[in-house]
Amino acid sequence: MTVTVRFAPSPTGHIHIGNSRPALFNWLFSRKEGGRFVLRFDDTDLERSKQEYAESIEKDLRWLGIIPDFIERQSRRVASYDVASQKLKDAGLLYPCYETPEELDRRRSRQRSLGRPPVYDRAGLKQTAEERAAFEAEGRRPHWRFILPNHDADPFETKRTDVTWNDLCRGEQSVDLSSMSDPVLIRADGTYLYTLPSIVDDIDMGITHVIRGEDHVANTGVQIAIFEALGAAAPIFGHHNLLTTRDGEGLSKRKGALSIGSLREAGLEPMSVASLAVLTGTSQAVEPVQDMDALIGKFDLASISRSSAKFDPEELKNLNARLVHELPYEAVSDRLADLGIEAGADFWETVRGNCETVNDAADFWQIVTGPVVSRIEDEDREFVAKTRNFLPDGEITPETWSAWTSALKSETGRKGRGLFMPLRRVLTGMDHGPDMKAMLPLIGRRNILDRLP
Ligand code: GLU
């Protein structure tokens, strides 16, 4: 069977670096296994789901290098969910319940005050046809619960029922169905909660592996039971740890600063975001990885640790800078052109070591082409006045810097910082930056002479 995975976001917000992890894990897994990657929008919540979010998620994934083999949305597949729910009803596995949310709340508080777990008591299952008709006559509509297979003949006599699976990230896992309420699959207004559509889709799309956050571990036992009730084998599951800040704070969808869109706008490289997202919270070192193929080589679900994946947003800047320092010219030439930089590999190779993002190259291009606000400290004024006369004749080459500074050293006796810094300041307006030996030919004779007093 072809390995098929899915990333199944609800399009109710923009994705951030935390939600990019299941997307990347599924993507890397599908590429490693020569399989398929499905992007499935879980948009059964029609009020909160928005087309603009679906579009932004697709755009963000593409930027990260994830190109789905297939895209689907649940709102188009309701007919299939109706068929599946009818099948469960016919098998007596889905039963109507007429309690209002307030009644359920009151019941749960009562159970808690008696020290009992707030598990639904299957009262709906006891109701007679007349009682149901009476509720209907009052205008009540039922919600529908799936009866968990945690009992023998009598559903009111539950017994310990462990559902186990071998999790790709967490190893042997087990959930006891006797401690759980029968899940509501259909709301009173007839719409589906996420559970049943997700399972029906996983079956119909031939999903072989479900890789998702560990916040879904508790759902997995119930889902395996529903797969079986529908006559299907459950996929293999892998639940990864969740990304948090250093102080353990979770990243909600509203954390704007860490949205993939804002990281893109800040000029970060997709591969530094992907490297951090995939390697944080694993037993591997978090380091910049140049391309997806190399990341596929490093990716290993079993190396994900059990504790949360803690990260400091500052790390991302550092990782990005390290990645940019190694980027070859061919990888950035189009983007340099977009920034209005009409330079070749020599310019990029000179400045990349001083760039935190590729966009920073624009500042160095400004220094190369000018105009530059030259800086001369008072104590250097006399020295700088002499420099023009010692600039070697002819073409400015990488050798010019050392010939020029040697001549100035002999003339003035200055050396080290006292010799180099005044020249850097007068030519670039800054007291740090790329190697002057390589900058000089880029700046060129005309600009050099213009900037010297
Ligand atoms: N829409 C669900 C979520 O975003 C999908 C969970 C799953 O992968 O099954 O949490």
UniProtKB/TrEMBL annotation:
The enzyme's E.C. designation: 6.1.1.17
Any one GO CC term of the record: cytoplasm
Subcellular location field: Cytoplasm
Chain span(s) of sequence motif 'KMSKS' region: 250-254
Domain spans labelled Glutamyl/glutaminyl-tRNA synthetase class Ib catalytic: 3-317
Keyword Membrane annotated: no
Enzyme class: ligase
Keywords from the named record: Aminoacyl-tRNA synthetase, ATP-binding, Cytoplasm, Ligase, Nucleotide-binding, Protein biosynthesis
UniProt-listed NCBIfam families: gltX_bact
Gene Ontology terms, MF aspect: ATP binding; glutamate-tRNA ligase activity; tRNA binding; zinc ion binding
Protein family: Belongs to the class-I aminoacyl-tRNA synthetase family. Glutamate--tRNA ligase type 1 subfamily.
PROSITE patterns according to UniProt: AA_TRNA_LIGASE_I
Binding site for ATP: K253
Motif 'HIGH' region, residue numbers: 9-19
Lineage: superkingdom: Bacteria
UniProt KW Protein biosynthesis keyword: yes
Biological role stated in the UniProt entry: Catalyzes the attachment of glutamate to tRNA(Glu) in a two-step reaction: glutamate is first activated by ATP to form Glu-AMP and then transferred to the acceptor end of tRNA(Glu).
Gene designation: gltX1
Pfam family, one: tRNA-synt_1c
GO annotation terms (biological process): glutamyl-tRNA aminoacylation
SUPFAM superfamilies referenced in this protein's UniProt entry, alphabetically: An anticodon-binding domain of class I aminoacyl-tRNA synthetases (SSF48163), Nucleotidylyl transferase (SSF52374)
Natural source organism: Roseibium album
Name of the protein in its database record: Glutamate--tRNA ligase
Domain Aminoacyl-tRNA synthetase class I anticodon-binding: 375-452
Catalytic activity annotation: tRNA(Glu) + L-glutamate + ATP = L-glutamyl-tRNA(Glu) + AMP + diphosphate
Gene3D superfamilies reported in the protein's UniProt record: 1.10.10.350, HUPs (3.40.50.620)
Subunit structure: Monomer.
